[in-house]
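Weekly sync, protein design subgroup
Attendees: M.S., D.O., the rotation student, P.L. (late)

Item 1: inverse folding check
M.S. brought a backbone from last month's batch and wanted to see whether the design step gives back something sensible before we order anything. D.O. pointed out we never logged the input encoding, so this time it goes straight into the notes. Structure tokens as presented (225 positions):
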């Protein structure tokens, strides 16, 4: 089983390093990806949501065997698009304190006014990239604004297991745009929603909480055959 991990806005594959190491030690094949226009790929032009989905779709299609997708924050948009494009290849999907879009949704349309204000204010320097928040890791880079406002196109082709892990730390929950998404999914029988006792930076205290969420999805996939 392949586990492909997509980071959130401004971040690269490096964010998942402890998760990749932990999953590998447990016998899983894990691959973290940096999206075009970010971090070591910052010089790549034309980074839209559609371009991100296409880039990851090409990588996933080339892998041997079935794939479970994990997306943190913005990465939830990307994994939704990839699963829709490759429903015969993707056997499980996990959005970690992130987006879980329907057709026509965008990050912009899915967040609150405070988050939209960050998109606008933090892109004022370049006009094209949303600068990382001050508390972000020094390795982060501006996130392509186009990918946050572009609407996703989904056909509904993916019908496999879908899990959502909400970062439920009380201090984060009062400002987070994601509890609204989690509450919507709790009433959707197609989704399994769990709460994590973490902030949005779910790896701050180490990889164990996220690895457990991934393994819960893997167990369901294995049970489904």
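Designed sequence read out in the meeting:
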């Amino acid at each position: 089983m392949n586990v492909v991990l997509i980071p959130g806005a401004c971040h690269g594959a490096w964010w998942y390093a402890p998760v990749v190491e932990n999953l590998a030690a447990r016998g899983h094949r894990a691959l973290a990806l940096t999206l075009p226009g970010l971090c070591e790929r910052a010089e790549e032009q034309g980074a839209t949501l559609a371009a991100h989905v296409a880039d990851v779709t090409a990588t996933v299609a080339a892998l041997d065997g079935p794939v479970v997708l994990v997306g943190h924050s913005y990465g939830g948009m990307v994994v939704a698009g990839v699963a829709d494009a490759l429903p015969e290849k993707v056997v499980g999907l996990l959005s970690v304190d992130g987006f879980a879009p329907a057709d026509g949704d965008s990050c912009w349309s899915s967040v609150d006014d405070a988050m939209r204000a960050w998109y606008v204010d933090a892109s004022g320097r370049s006009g094209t990239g949303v600068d990382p928040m001050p508390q972000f890791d020094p390795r982060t880079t501006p996130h392509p604004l186009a990918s946050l406002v572009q609407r996703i196109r989904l056909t509904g082709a993916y019908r496999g297991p879908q899990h959502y892990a909400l970062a439920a730390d009380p201090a984060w929950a009062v400002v987070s745009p994601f509890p609204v998404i989690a509450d919507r999914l709790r009433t959707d029988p197609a989704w399994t929603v769990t709460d994590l006792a973490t902030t949005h930076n779910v790896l701050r205290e180490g990889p164990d909480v996220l690895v457990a969420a991934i393994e819960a999805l893997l167990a369901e996939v294995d049970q489904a055959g």
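Discussion: DSSP finds nine helices and eight strands in the chain. The chain has one domain: 2-100+153-224.
Action: P.L. to compare against the previous round before Friday.
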